[in-house]
Design a protein that fits this description.
The chain is α/β, with parallel strands linked by helices. The chain has 11 helices and 14 strands. The protein has helices at about 25-35, 45-50, 85-100, 115-120, 130-135, 145-150, 165-175, 200-210, 225-230, 245-250, 260-270; strands spanning about 5-10, 40, 60-65, 70-75, 80, 105-110, 110-115, 140, 155-160, 180-185, 190-195, 215-220, 235-240, 250-255.
């Protein structure tokens, strides 16, 4: 099989534990790009959260961003498809977050938005590894609901970062009754997208746009929010740092993200 597209998760996959892309992996991506293979970011991150990697990601032509909520053309710097969340649903999620003292994180078309009081203490939500990034790129808002009202149609995903498993599980029991896509990307995190919007749905939309068959796509990931895309792509790769459950879904298990697992997979498959 001659594969034409590579979809790459970011955190835990393309990025090592220091949130960087190794020189070996960069070289492997540049080699694929020179061979006219589409390299695609497949991530829960939004545009703002990718800003510090713009130079590293020059070989990427498109992105399945915000967990499939937005398909983006990096070459022309424009969205291909946007799936916004409806306002009443966002308000209900915000209420759940406020009640459990969770950090409410809104992903919009171009921005990352949260309350200052939460941003300044991300370690309390087991998200300290992202403190520096949020300090730099996150837009502060005093009232999440007011922000939503003043930016209609712009919120694509809502993340709730909880302080512990008990509060996370409490909200999961309530949110799972709603018509939403839910994933667990971090220890106490819940990520909510509109119904049926996942990285897998994003891969299907992007392949349709590029006129590529799904069987010609390779996906690499490591976490719960990569589950569907690994089951959808023509060939799937789990990182060595993935759980056994995620590994069981993959056609290939590569090295972990601190040992150039992405580069090793590229060298083996392409």
């Amino acid at each position: 099989m001659k594969y034409k597209l590579l979809a790459l998760d970011m955190d835990g996959t393309l990025l090592n534990s220091e949130k960087k892309i190794s020189s070996r992996t960069k070289a492997a991506l540049e080699n694929l790009s020179a061979r006219r293979i589409f390299i695609v970011a497949s991530t829960g991150r939004n545009l703002a959260e990718l800003s510090e990697y713009r130079d590293d990601l020059k070989s990427m032509s498109c992105g399945i961003l915000i967990s499939g909520g937005m398909i983006y053309d990096f070459v022309n710097d424009a969205p291909i498809k946007i799936h916004a969340m409806d306002e009443p649903t966002i308000f209900k999620l915000i209420d759940f977050g406020l009640e459990t003292r969770a950090m409410i994180h809104l992903h919009t078309i171009k921005k990352s938005v949260a309350r200052q009081e939460d941003i300044q203490n991300m370690a309390a939500f087991d998200m300290g590894v992202y403190q520096n990034m949020f300090d730099k790129i996150c837009e502060r808002c005093a009232d999440p609901k007011e922000y939503v009202r003043s930016h209609p149609g712009s919120v694509i995903k809502v993340n709730l970062y909880h302080r512990d498993k008990i509060s996370r599980d409490k909200n999961f029991e309530r949110i799972k009754k709603m018509n939403l896509s839910i994933s667990f990307a971090e220890a106490f995190n819940l990520e909510m997208s509109p119904a049926n919007i996942t990285k897998a749905s994003g891969l299907k939309e992007l392949c349709d746009f590029l006129k590529i068959d799904l069987s010609e796509a390779v996906a690499i990931g490591d976490a719960d929010n990569d589950r569907e895309i690994l089951q959808t792509a023509g060939f799937s790769v789990a990182m060595g740092n993935s759980s056994d459950e995620i590994k069981s879904l993959a056609d290939l298990v590569t090295l972990d993200n601190d040992n150039d697992g992405v580069a090793a997979a590229i060298e083996k498959i392409f």
